[in-house]
Design brief:
The structure is a homodimer of 430-residue chains. With 430 residues, chain A is α/β, with parallel strands linked by helices. Chain A folds into 3 domains: 129 residues, Rossmann fold (3-Layer(aba) Sandwich), CATH 3.40.50; 165 residues, Dihydrodipicolinate Reductase, domain 2 (2-Layer Sandwich), CATH 3.30.360.10; 78 residues, Alpha-Beta Plaits, CATH 3.30.70. Helices cover 36% and strands 25% of the residues of chain A. Chain A has 14 helices and 16 strands. In chain A, strands 7, 8, 9, 10, 11, 12, 13, 14, 15 and 16 form a 10-stranded mixed sheet that branches. In chain A, strands 3-2-1-4-5-6 form a 6-stranded parallel sheet, with helices on both faces. In chain A, helix 7 packs across helix 8. The longest helix of chain A has 18 residues. The first copy, chain A, is elongated, with a radius of gyration of 24 Å. Chain A starts with 6 loop residues before the first strand and ends with a strand. The relative contact order of chain A is 0.13. The model of chain A has no long low-confidence stretch (mean pLDDT 95).
Chain lengths: 430, 430
């Protein structure tokens, strides 16, 4: 092979990930060329603040203030979008890049969760590649596994702990026996939280990721609005301890599966067996579990964020393009992706219920009656501790539908013996 | 796109994996075409016994008694070799397929461990694709992760528990408190063992797999002869229990890393922390751990064998070819793979030593002296139980080289206070 032309990158966004990509391209120039058969070079970069010292020398690269200008340069083959944001410059520049016939590699889960279908169709129409390994679960090559390695499977379920901040908070609450608020503040001080913390603790960020996995797994159009979102704010340390006592851990778990009624996507706190890989996941690490009809269960674990891991994912996509690998964004032609209706928690499960029961005669009997009327049968029940005038009670149900649980929760409010809102947490069989 | 031509497979070997591939191709014809953009069809098959009932209808396919004839048919685009064996018909037919310009997908670890370099060079020369996802860790898409998803990393270490039979035996010894011989016989009766059990319990099968991972990870020519092999036959239930008591599990663990002295590849029983993903792996499940300079540690876990998982891996490769993905067998041009010398356990570690110490005055002092002379310092020591005239003693060393341990073991034989051969098991930091 005689001196193949380099693949030329334009990188927009020079936060930790952008800087990480620059570092890899420099440090591993030889390795990259050996593996892909051609050099990978950076032509130009763009970011908000040109003056900022990022610890890497940017002089070798042209500077563009406007990412759209960067994305459409004649000397850019691949536009690497690392700015983030579901709209604004990220969306405009990605669209401009595609229109200009550039391949796109992005780490932007929000952009694709909201506009993935339109952007993938545009890329397909333009005959360019749009890849996003870095958008889901950081360094774990899960998009590749799902799209390519496991392509021979009908996927039956995808699960994931994909927000390291939430997993850090829940793990820390358990380890240090600290309440949610205290650990939340800790995480904030450590810089673990997004500017809008709801992106993390409200499950939005992880929900974005789940919606992208769902699309590939089930051949459906990305449907972030169809993700039932529930954050971790209502999890108390008592829940974590009671769950642990029964052999469970609480995780902010994403679950997607196709049901007879449509695509079910949930991102919510769940109890998972302490001895399972998901239950054993601690701190900021991510895990994705893929279940296929032939392969059974595949578990992938790794760093979900950070300069190195996320840049590694970006480079995986870039090197695929350098190798000439052209694959549909969501694993099949964008125009063939099916529009499905969202199914709201139709898959039955056992539930963990916590409520504050008043010291009144027959209180427990009333609770049992309401649950029974809703079709929720009790597997085990325990009272722990005692507050003034009320006692916290934990009930683990037998398998039932979420609708039955919701009916029971509504009914509990009318008994006059339950103080405040009861909490229901799904127990996911993993 | 107007009716693209089907990708036509010729499948040699109709054991569980071959049958599994046929089942997937039939069951998921639509899904496969949607994902790859073209149909995948089976033209012809070959196996030793035509009359055998395999539970699938073979009438739609031409039959070839000779796999070489199958591999070179004009109406075959991809030769799928699922017969196994490092030489004989597997090798002859793969070579014939390549010479005839066919792509090759194989699950044959022995063939590639012994002849991978020559076969990869031939494939490259012929401009065809040779892929082997199914040869390593069953359904886990680890070859793809290492070759493509993590391609931007310098790989620093690869580890794996990749022989389900050994892991079953070790797990079962621990759970049921049964000695090795009894569990070995159980595994044999359950059909878990290869015709030559040394392939399993001697670490050969897992060693084949490790040598293939090493080649991709380090860009080196496959060097199975460079794998230091040690089987699990000498592991006693006491070792497993003592290890557990100290917070470890014993696994047949493969470890490959590049050192200043060459490529170190070991497949041997190791102590790993009980709380680590490797330590928590039970039964027949496989796990591969990949460590890269940017990505950190990626852990992949799944079924290491069986019809569905292995066929899933074969189909991943087939569908890559249907999608037009052409990638070098070992991740870079075969002619660019480096010939490295094997390094024998140069990476230091702590070791677990078990010996049978005679009831003689000063026995322990002599042992300590020998270890000290060899440069092996003792971290902790314990005596457990007592046999007639001897006492089993466990010593955990501080980090030292394998050479120092070997010197100590040789020295122990000359003390006159150690009965039989001491056992040394590496404690791998994972």
């Amino acid at each position: 092979m005689s001196n193949p032309a380099p693949l030329r990158l334009g990188i927009a966004g020079l936060g930790t990930v952008g800087v990480g990509v620059i570092r890899i391209v420099r440090k591993h120039a030889k390795l990259i060329e050996e593996r892909t058969g051609r050099p990978v070079a950076i032509t130009a970069v763009s970011a908000r603040n040109r003056a900022k010292d990022r610890g890497v020398d940017l002089k070798p690269y042209d500077w563009e203030d406007d990412p759209v200008s960067l994305a459409t340069r004649d000397d850019v083959d691949v536009y690497v979008e690392l700015m983030g944001g579901s709209d604004g410059p990220a969306k405009a520049s990605v669209e401009a890049a595609i229109a200009a016939g550039k391949h796109v590699v992005t780490a932007n889960k929000a952009l694709l969760a909201h506009h993935g279908q339109a952007i993938a169709e545009a890329a397909e129409e333009a005959g360019v590649v749009l890849r996003f390994e870095a958008a889901v679960a950081g360094g774990i090559p899960v998009i590749k596994a799902l799209t390519e390695g496991l392509a021979g499977n009908e996927i039956t379920r995808v699960m994931g702990v994909m927000n390291g901040t939430c997993n850090y908070i829940l793990t820390r609450m358990y380890d240090a026996e600290l309440p949610y608020d205290v650990v939340f503040d800790e995480a904030d001080k450590l810089g673990f939280l997004e500017a809008d913390p709801q992106l993390d603790v409200g499950g939005i960020d992880a929900g974005h990721k789940l919606s992208l996995l769902s699309s590939i797994a089930f051949g459906t159009q990305v449907d972030f609005d169809g993700v039932e979102l529930e954050g971790i704010e209502r999890i108390q340390i008592a829940d974590i301890e009671q769950a642990a006592d029964m052999g469970y851990r609480i995780k902010l778990l994403g679950v997607a599966q196709m049901t007879g009624r449509g695509l079910e996507q949930r991102m919510s706190p769940c109890l998972v067996p302490a001895a399972s890989p998901l239950g054993q996941l601690e701190g900021g690490t991510n895990m994705v579990v893929i279940e296929g009809d032939s392969v059974g269960q595949i578990v992938m674990r790794g760093a979900g964020a950070g300069e190195g891991p996320t840049a590694s994912a970006v480079m995986g996509d870039v090197m695929d393009i350098a190798r000439g690998i052209t694959i549909s964004t969501f694993g099949k032609a964008a125009t063939a992706l099916v529009e499905t209706r969202p199914a709201k928690a139709t898959v039955p499960a056992a539930y963990y219920l916590r409520m504050s029961l008043m010291d009144k005669p027959g209180a427990l009997a009333k609770v049992a009656q309401v649950l029974g009327d809703a079709g929720v049968s009790i597997n085990r029940m325990r009272q722990y501790g005692h507050d003034e005038g009320t006692a916290p009670v934990i009930i683990v149900t037998h398998t039932c539908t979420r609708a039955a649980v919701d009916e029971a929760l509504a009914g509990l409010g009318t008994t006059g013996v339950v103080e405040g809102d009861p909490v229901a947490i799904r127990i996911e069989e993993v």
